[in-house]
Design a protein that fits this description.
Layout: E1 3-11, E2 16-24, E3 33-41, H1 44-51, E4 62-63, E5 67-75, E6 85-89, E7 104-107, E8 113-114, H2 121-144, E9 153-155, H3 161-172, E10 177-181, H4 187-193, E11 197-200, E12 216-221, H5 225-233, E13 235-243, H6 257-261, E14 265-268, H7 276-289, H8 292-297, E15 299-303, H9 307-315, E16 322-326
Parallel strand pairs: 9-10, 9-12, 10-11, 12-13, 13-14, 15-16
Antiparallel strand pairs: 1-2, 1-4, 3-5, 3-7, 3-16, 5-6, 6-8
Helix pairs in contact: 1-9, 2-3, 2-7
Length: 328
């Protein structure tokens, strides 16, 4: 047993403190697989945990970070052996289980997914929980029956992590993507990802009406609140919106009108406790349906010692696309 570098969060008299320090391997939590973490990433939830702006962390001390990719170092699980390349998303990491901003992680083997051929550990975190969530949203829309011929689809928070990946995937699958963003300067970036139209998020910020003019057959929403309510009121008959975020709030000021008068469906997307077979399918789909060149375009890289600053910036809406965190 030894120590390793980790970003540790502790309870303070007022809120929490976060710092990079040495963590004792003996303090790692129960699990049958120990992974040498190579890459992690920055998600909105990570920003909340790092800054203490929301009660994401529910045990102390905590190693922050909700997802990682790396190589199995030790395993007593029959499913994994030393040298396997794996990815892990959610399962309470960084919340109730010691997380990913560390050189080592010990988790349950049942939480891990084998990296598909053609996806490196860095690629996996360029995708990260945000990209994996975007894929789950696309799969839910497909399960609902949505096809490219059904009509346009809208993506909110399009310049963010979930939005960037959703835009890239949907455009590759042949959809007419309407990208909603509050950052006009990102229009060229979004068009490069495949957006056919750009709309200002202000168009979705007005007080929602029960029903509005039908504009899209479906969509992926990472914003919530008034934005989601407006999306629902503008969804075509029989359409669906996949909701996976709450950047604007947890409230939903809508009515039953879209659901009972237009047959619109609201599809909830949970990436944290999603069952393992659907995770495997999502990662196989990401290997096939996400253009690697677009992934490169949307990804920036930082070292672990810059994560605290980046966490504050993602909450301020100052982070574009995906950010990978180099651990080792």
């Amino acid at each position: 047993m030894g120590t390793f570098k980790a970003l540790r969060i502790d309870k303070a008299d007022k809120g929490t403190t976060a710092q990079i320090t040495q963590f004792d391997e003996a303090e790692l939590m129960d699990g049958d697989v120990t992974v040498r973490v190579e890459w992690s990433t920055l998600n909105y939830k990570d920003g909340l945990a790092l800054t203490g702006k929301a009660p994401v962390v529910r045990r102390f001390p905590m190693i922050a970070g909700i997802d990682f990719a790396g190589t199995v170092e030790k395993s007593t699980s029959p499913d994994w052996k030393t040298g396997d390349r794996v990815v892990c998303n959610g399962w309470g990491m960084g919340e109730t289980h010691l997380g990913a901003y560390a050189e080592k992680a010990r988790v349950k083997g049942d939480w891990l997914v084998k990296l598909p051929d053609g996806i490196s550990t860095r690629d996996a975190m360029a995708i990260g929980t945000a990209g994996y969530t975007a894929m789950l949203a696309v799969m839910a829309l497909e399960d609902h029956g949505l096809k490219a011929v059904s009509g346009a689809v809208v993506v909110t928070g399009a310049a963010g992590g979930v939005g960037s990946v959703a835009t890239a995937i949907l455009s590759k699958l042949g959809y007419h993507v309407i990208a909603s963003t509050g950052r006009a300067a990102e229009a060229d970036y979004l068009r490069a990802l495949g957006a056919a139209e750009i709309i200002d998020r202000a168009e979705l910020a007005a007080t929602p009406r029960p029903l509005n003019k039908e504009r899209w057959a479906g969509g992926v929403d990472s914003v919530g609140s008034t934005t989601l309510a407006n999306l629902l009121s503008m969804t075509k008959y029989g359409g669906a919106i996949a909701a996976c975020g709450l950047a604007a709030g947890m409230d939903l000021p809508t009515s039953v009108a879209p659901f009972i008068l237009r047959g619109v469906c609201l599809l909830g997307i949970d990436s944290v406790m999603c069952e393992i077979s659907r995770r495997r399918t999502a990662w196989q789909r990401l290997a096939r349906d996400l253009d690697k060149s677009k992934l490169t375009e949307m990804t920036a890289e930082i070292p672990l010692d810059q994560v605290l600053d980046a966490g504050a910036r993602i909450l301020a809406g100052q982070v574009r696309g995906r950010t990978v965190v180099k651990i080792t």
